[in-house]
Amino acid sequence: MQIPVVEAIVLGVVQGITEFLPISSDGHLALVQLLFGGQADLATTVVLHAGTFAATLLVLRKRVVAAVHEGVRGLFRPSLMRETPGGRDAFVVILASVPTALVGLTLKKSVEEWSSSPIIVGACLLLSAVAVASTRWSPVGRELTPSTWGSVLVGLAQGSAVLPGLSRSAMTIASLLWLGVRADRAFELSFLMSLPAVFGAIVLEGRHGFGPQTGGAFPLLAGTVVAFGVGIVALLALRRVLVGGKLALFAAYLVPLAIATIAWGYARPSYTP
Fold first, then answer.
1. What is the reported pLDDT for 2?
2. Which EC numbers does the record give (predicted)?
């Protein structure tokens, strides 16, 4: 079924902003879809994520190229994973991706059901608020990368963000800051880590999202382009906020949103105690 162009653009704006800012893209998309009275089709979800995936590649292109280049070389010379900046980034991404995949695949079926519950979405938004607020007291970062076990821990944090309303960037950036990683590096590593997970989701869901039943291409293209453009702006804004030590300010938005979402869930006629 074809999604209306206006709805595709709205979803593109929401995806572009919330995929990167620590306020949960899945949580906001779930709320928008509930307000529209239904769920966006799989094809729309896939192309929106493709738009923000492309935005990440563009903004972090130098780091991505270095990580891929040194990571591939590191397969033949493992010492490069420790000796070069790109190799160290690749090593962290690889370590983090394993627990992320395990947690994500384990929770996948449950998440599809939980996304339709404003109460669960609101509770997870509240946890995102706790994560960003906690960075107000995180230590001054001096490290360029986390330790081996620290990378695994960040991967677990990233995997938990499959829950609707639990922000991936909030969980990973907060974890990295608490592990003593510099703010600018926490930004880079957080989104480098996201690339394998997002790419995997696009590939897995894309196999089932497109077919004869898929609607017109124009709404999908419009949503993708909007998500891409808005995503670039959001990424650059987040880097500035994070380096400036102001990440905790996002809690001021998340807390009232979480409370309102939970209250809405209890007030809905379909809610059953």
1. 63
2. 3.6.1.27
Q: CA-to-CA distance for 97 and 67, rounded, in angstroms?
A: 14
**How many C-alpha atoms does 145 have within 13 Å on its Cβ side?**
23
Token output for 253: 């938005």
pTM for the model: 0.89
* CB-count burial class (<10 Å; 0-12, 13-18, 19+) for 6: exposed
Cα dihedral sign, 58-64-69-75: negative
Token code pair at residue 128: 């995102």
SS (H, E, C) the chain: CCCCHHHHHHHHHHHHHHCCCCCCHHHHHHHHHHHCCCCCCHHHHHHHHHHHHHHHHHHCHHHHHHHHHHHHHHCCCCCHHHHCHHHHHHHHHHHHHHHHHHHHHHHHHHHHHHCCCHHHHHHHHHHHHHHHHHHHHCCCCCECCCCHHHHHHHHHHHHHCCCCCCCHHHHHHHHHHHCCECHHHHHHHHHHHHHHHHHHHHHHHHHHHCCCCCCCHHHHHHHHHHHHHHHHHHHHHHHHHHHCCCHHHHHHHHHHHHHHHHHHHHHCCCCCC
- Using 50, 70 and 90 to split pLDDT, how confident is the model at 131? very high
Closest CA to 124 of 272, 14, 255, 234: 255
d(CA 213, CA 59): 34
Average pLDDT rounded to a whole number, residues 43-56: 88
Q: Are the C-beta atoms of residues 2 and 219 closer than 8 Å to each other?
A: yes
